[in-house]
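Hello K.,

You asked for the raw outputs rather than the summary table, so here they are, unedited. I folded two proteins back to back in the same session to keep the settings identical. This is the first:
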Amino acid sequence: MKTLILIPSRLSATRLPGKPLLKIKGISVISHVVKKAKEANIGEVYVATEDKEIILDVEKNGGQAILTSNKPKTGTDRIYEALTKLGKTDVDLIMNLQGDEPLINLDDIKNLNNQMIKHKSEMGTLASLITDKDLLTNQNVVKVITKENLNNSNFPEANSFFRKSNNNSNNTYHHLGVYCYTFETLKRFVSFPQSLNENKNKLEQLRALDNNIKLNVALAKSSPIGLDTEEDLIAIKKIMEYK
């Protein structure tokens, strides 16, 4: 099975403008993510971006990048455009990594890829255990409810995703925005218009569930800090600079 890792990235983030090019230990956030993706050693890695500054930075740091238009509404739509432009029709799986999570765990990337192959799934993602109950009411933390209890060896289907607190805390986990699709599933996903649920909740994965695409969930070892605010940057810097 051949896997391709694509990392959607853009400069126009509203909460922390220019975040892909913010520096940690002298290297941009996006280039740290590229480095991690390459270290996972599951396939080629490309950044998909509408910003030439990001391409220059990634290439300067030894990575590969491809320019997309500014039309894609979501990261998934962007990576499909990149895949089309790259002309790579010989890949079996496409992994969509977040460009703002330099602390993503290498083992989690490998595990998701392995579970996709083992279970012959059409689409997969990651989730971690919720150890802090406050996260259930934090709307910035996306939650997933799975059909079965999540453990290290299984790959259950997702029932639903939500931001706001949900009374049903059984089989509820912290969703991590990493996705893996078969080539055909990604093609199907982007052929559907954005769903009402997706727009209302600002969660692109709901487009899959709304169109009967089975989405399986693998247990992640940890929940990396995503880079959305100045506080996040300080916290990530502390961890990475300490290492």
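The second followed immediately with the same parameters:
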Amino acid sequence: FATYAQYLYFEAIDPNYDIDAEINQLRQFDNTLLALPVPGDPGAEQLFAPSVYFRGALTVHSLRRTIGDEAFFTTLRTYLERFGGGNATTEDFQGIAEEISGVDLDDFFQAWLYEAPLPPPPS
């Protein structure tokens, strides 16, 4: 989220900013930086690995493109309302995204967070 928040900030302040183009540049990184460790379970020693930050941003943006802006931003607000200042899990976030969007996201989160190959961008 921290990495993706930077992209959201630039999108908010610059009407000419193309967030999709910027995110696509992340996809051009060396796949070994994006594949391992898988960001959903990097282990304590790899918690700050590039895949956690960069692939995490790709995941969040792909979720946005999968469920649409309205559901995505409602998901973020709801997540903050329910868990802000506390602890939450990936499953908690997924549950809110599914609740808001009405979309089953099991396969999405499995592919993006727990499997090494980088999934294709949403169409």
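The mean pLDDT is 91.

Happy to rerun anything if the numbers look odd on your end.

Regards,
P.
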